[in-house]
Amino acid sequence: MTRGPTIVRVTPSGGHSGGGIKCCCCRCCECLNLGYLTSQHGALKIAEAMLGSLCQSLLVKYGLSEASSMGSAFHGFLTTASACLLTTALLIACYVLSSSSQQLIRQSIFEFVFNAVACFMYLSASSYMGVAVNIYLYPRYALVNMYAAYPAMTAVYYIGVVVGILHGVDAYISYRYHKGLR
Q: What percent of the chain has pLDDT over 70?
């Protein structure tokens, strides 16, 4: 006996969803799901995006001049931060623009797999960056006065560990949501 495709239908929860922006006596842009930004999952995604963008900006501002001495550790971390930041920003945009896409994407395996891969990439890139920073940049920091690359790159790999842990927590929450264990 063959089974047909499973259809998932998302219905609004009641009459007024509370979405959009309240203007005087009415609501504008009710298609926006701004309540997502204040939810636990939304706060987690915003934290991932903010810390990821902090890593990326520190890498570009302070690490670009030292990229040749750090080698592939710099490029690997920059690639990780850029890819994960882009995907996280796209997910936030999808969730804010449509509450039904929020439900459908979170029910799929994509969110779990993305966060698990992002967790692994951030943690491995941070450990590699930590080794490279301490081997190649610390000797210059000890000799050169006001050498800003070492403290900035140290902050990058510490923040990278935090972002990796956040993605790991998000992967766990997404897995439980995917399996229906909410």
A: 85
